[in-house]
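Need a sequence for this fold. Nothing fancy.
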């Protein structure tokens, strides 16, 4: 896949996760701790999307950066579809299920495909993404700690 197309897919994923986490923040606003975790994650996912937009602009300015990359678009589409289903579900999802879903999304390989894609395309741009790997791990760790503090199993 051409890198600009891959970046489009990756941005869609980041924006959908930001939307989902914003939804969870608002859904669980009565629980300040849970709401705050999801609020922070939503902001960080929005920041990821902005970084992907920056990468797209960088690639457009330098055609030598345009290479073929490999990402799992089916996995990205599955996550986006699952997130949409959660947002649209009636009745709204429970806190337990929200935490489990978020853990699954953060652990999913699709969340990390863009790092591999960028490394394939250009190692210099990939360096920008190394910090995101830490943020993704922080998301997972925060969710796992929150789930454990609420006696919620992170396994189905």
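Here you go.
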């Amino acid at each position: 896949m051409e890198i600009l197309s891959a970046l489009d897919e990756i941005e869609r994923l980041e924006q959908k996760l930001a939307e989902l986490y914003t939804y969870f923040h608002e859904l669980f606003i009565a629980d300040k701790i849970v709401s705050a975790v999801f609020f922070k994650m939503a902001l960080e996912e929005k920041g990821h999307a902005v970084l992907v937009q920056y990468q797209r602009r960088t690639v457009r300015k330098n055609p030598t950066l345009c290479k073929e990359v490999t990402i799992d678009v089916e996995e990205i589409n599955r996550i986006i579809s699952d997130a949409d289903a959660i947002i649209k579900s009636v009745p709204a999802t429970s806190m337990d299920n929200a935490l489990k879903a978020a853990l699954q999304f953060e652990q999913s390989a699709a969340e990390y495909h863009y790092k591999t894609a960028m490394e394939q395309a250009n190692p210099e741009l990939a360096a920008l993404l190394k910090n995101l790997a830490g943020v993704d791990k922080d998301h997972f760790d925060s969710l796992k700690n929150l789930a454990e503090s609420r006696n919620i199993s992170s396994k189905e």
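For context: The chain has one domain: 3-149.
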